Amino acid sequence: MIFTLAALVGLVAGMIRAKMKANTYFPIELKYSWMILLAFVPQWLVFLLPATRELVPNTWIPFILISTQLILLVFVWLNRRQPCIWLLGLGLMFNFFAICSNNGWMPISPDVLQRLQVPQSAWQLWERRGFSKDMVIPVENTKLWILSDILSLNLYSRFKIAFSIGDILIAGGIFAYFWSSGGSKTLTKEYQS
Amino acid sequence: MKTLSNLQNVFATKVNAQTIRVIVTLISLVLFALAAGAPDIIGGVGMG
Predict the structure, then answer these.
(1) Which residues make Cβ contacts (< 8 Å) with residue A30, sequence separation at least 6?
(2) Is B20 in CB contact (< 8 Å) with chain A?
(3) pTM of this prediction?
(4) Between chains, do B21 and A129 touch, taking CB under 8 Å as contact?
(5) I need a surface site. Which of A68, A84, A99, B1 has the fewest CB within 10 A?
(6) Does A106 touch chain B (CB under 8 A)?
């Protein structure tokens, strides 16, 4: 949801920017977009789809998470010349490092869960939190703690979110990508031709 | 009249190309973020 919001806000901001510069808004093309689908589908089956996520053993998660994020790193490298992709890549790398150094799971500490007022019955130390990518790990046992889900937002009682610095960079990268698409004259020329 | 019709076609093609590019880029980047990001949403819908 936060990523969809970042994309929509960026899109609207980019369109306004294009209008102010009398350009036609035309987002910069991403190459090898199919790689995103290749990385997303396994994660969708494992983390989102209720029918399948319950069937996947927790021992598979680290392999799926690391391999799909590796696909995304290759995608970022292939698109490295596109504007603001470096920001998406940096966010991805931060999350990737945090996950790789903690046995294939994104760590979340009991402190963060307590800060979000998540009832203790909803989590257990050294266990996966629900169907998320997160494992509840004490701070003293977390490697690269600074890159884990240390930030929290308690929007209202039924919507709470824990996120990492990498997540902020990814959301910022999406916004910046759409924003930068609204300011390029060369793109307008490319579109007009 | 023919020129006008051609102009209309060109305009329609460009509008479609623009709309398609916007939608494809939007979906691509949202899916990228969902796969690359790792927020833990408690009580919300979806993984990011």
Answers:
(1) A79, A82, B25, B28, B29
(2) no
(3) 0.87
(4) no
(5) B1
(6) yes
